Amino acid sequence: MTWLSALAACAVMAGNAMAQDASTDDWEQKPYIIKDGKVDYGVYNGFRRYHASCHVCHGPDGLGSSYAPALVESLKTMSYSDFLEVVVNGRQVVNASSDSVMPSFAEVPDVMFYIDHIYAYLKARSNDEVGRGRPKRLPAGEDPVFKEWKASQ
Question: Looking at the whole model, is its pTM more than 0.85?
Answer without folding.
Answer: no
